[in-house]
Each structure stands twice: as C-alpha cells, then as structure tokens.
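User: Run a structure prediction on this.
Assistant: Running it now.
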Amino acid sequence: MSRRSENGNVTTPWRPASAEERALVLKELEAILSNSHFRTSRRYSALLKYIIEAALEERFSDLKERTLGVEVFGRASDYDTSIDPVVRISAGEVRKRIAQYYHENGHGTRVQIELPVGSYLPEFLLYPSDSFEVQARPEPEERIVPKTGARSWWRRTGPIVFAVIAMAVAGTFIARHLLKPAPEQSDQALHGLWDPVLQSTRPVIIVLGTTHPDKMPPESKNTTLDDNVKRPYHHVSVSIALALANLAGVLHQQGKGYEAKEATDTSLTDIRSRSVILVGASNNDWTMRLTRPLRIHFIFGSDGVGRVEDAANPRQTDWELDNTKPWSSLTSDYAIVARFRDPTVEGTVMVIAGIGPWGTEAAGEFVQSPQALGQLAKMLPSGWEHKNIEVVLKSNVIGGQPGPPIILSAISW
C-alpha cells in the first residue's frame, strides 16, 4: 500500500537490507526518541526502541504481545495478557506520539517509521532523495518549560465509548499492572509532588468525573444490569480512564493503596481525613467546589466557554476553551494540577483536571513524569515540596489527540 508524506511524496513500505540502510533507520529512531514526545517517557521510548531493533535484526518472533510484556515491561513469562494490557495501551500511545512527531517534523525526513494498528511489526518508508529539498532537521523542541506553548486533547467519542470504558471504573486492575517501577520514578521531583499525598495512613481515594452528571437520570431498584452498563451517561470517559491508569500506576509503585469512585457517588464522609485525588473539572463537582477558593481555578460560563482563571492576574485571558465549537476544530486545551491542604477535607487534595478531556489526559501524564516534574521543580522556589502548589498546563491537540503537557504557570504558597 502506498503512503503519502507530509510533503505529499508517495512511497511504499520498505525493508532495509544493507547495513547502511539499517543505519538510516536507526538514525531516524534516534531523532524520534530525542524529541519531546518520547524523551519524557522511558516506557514508550523503550518499547519503540525494542520493536525497531528486533525488526532490523529480523527477530520477528520477539514482536509478540507476551514477549514485549516480558522483555520491555518486566512481566512474568506466564502473565495474563487478557487482564494486563500494558503492551496494547503503550503501543497505542507510541502510535499517537509517532504521528505527532511527523506532523511537526515530517518535512525533509527521508526515512519514516510507522507502527500499524493491530501489529507490533513496524513499517519503514523510504522516500527518494530527490523528492526533498535539502533541509536541516529542526532541533528537538523543548515542550515543558515555555511560558507560552501549545498543546492539545483527544477525540471525544460517542456513548458507546462510555460502555467500553466501564472497565476503567469497575476494574481499576489496569493500574496495578500497567507500570513497572523504573529507576526514573525515584527522582526527587516526583517524590516532592507525591509524598504529601502518600502520608495518610488510609488508602488514597480517587474521585472520577462522570460525563454529564446533570444529565444522568436516577436509577430505580428495577434497573437491569444490562441497562446499567449501556446507559450512555453512566461511565467515565476515555481521558478520565487514562488519567486514572497513570495515577494508580504511581500509587502502586509507591506501595500505596487506593480506591476509585465516581464523583456523583462520593460524599464528604468518603473523602474526609484522607488524601484525595480529583480527576476532571466540569464533570466533577468536588473539583469545582474545592478549587473555587484557590487563586487559580476553573470558570465555566453561560457562554459555553471554559476558562482557567488566575485571580492575581485578571489580564490573563488566553487559558480558555470554547465548548460550543465542534471538537474537531479545537487545537488546544488547558489544565490545572494542584496539591493543597484543604480544611473541609482535613487532608491533602490533588487535582488533575482539564477544561476539556485532552487537558485532563495531559495532566494525568504530567504527574507521573519525573522529567516534567523536574522542570516544575526548577520553576518553583526552594521548599515547594512542603507547600501548596498550583500548575497551569497547556496541551496542543493534534488530530484529535493531546500532546505532552507544557507548563505555563506555577505557584506555591
């Protein structure tokens, strides 16, 4: 099947045969892994590197889900792939990041790498050298520190998705298998963010935003299981589920117990005197209630526009998302990551929430990334680990999917 590059040049999948051709692929792999889409995550980089090297060495039998789980993610040789989807989830994220990389850096790239959906065997594309003007490859762009950056969120799908994602709420087992402890996760910045959350003797409670809580009709005692599962507004969205997987992965690595509940089913008694993680904004009343007194908080106006507002900087009006526009036309989303002691809860509260779903997903990625948190630590004053903090993030939306988080603002008190 022929493919078209960002420049409009057409080619077909190609198998490198000589040492020189394999070197071209490895050079392209190095460029991809040095880009911000991959260098902030060892997990996705390790998977892509293993897949490419195995393909070039013609170790095709190693490109199976179980083998990848064992070799890349350290799973036991007899682990159950049906209940531990770490390879499938990580491969999907790798595909997304490769697409984002070529969207931003594809011009002038002679060799391109693809990972087809449903396969762990990569495809290589070689474009004729005379089909490109000679251009210098752009230096990898730093995505984390700029004061003004761009990022995005990913596609909201129809009601059928919510039924599929019921597994994320009903069986948060994904989080207990998703991530294997890695040396990078002992970084001081990651502990600086998470240690106050982990200090409670009780399990952490993760409170999940539920799509359209105001449109969720009450269930009667006669509601059947089938109706419960298929109700379009009953379950959390994909972005909430992915954020949950990231959060629960960190907690599992730190040996901390947790439970997850939908916001609509959570009472003050449930969250009092323990550490709480709130996921989602407009679909999570607890997020809106507990962040309202903070300097940086969400505003969802009657005009359909959602905003991240900084009370100390009212002239900052760029952090907004127009929820009335078609989702396919939106190019960025904004999120708040916060950690603070709350007098109502009488414990530590962490907020992982975007104006839209892309921001929530990017925020979930941010709090588990030692590299991103290392950048945050450089922006905050000494001792931030023991203070309340708020961070504003931006995520560029590319093809309906969120890019990595960019820090726009960070405060501590």
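The first strand starts at residue 3 and ends at 4.
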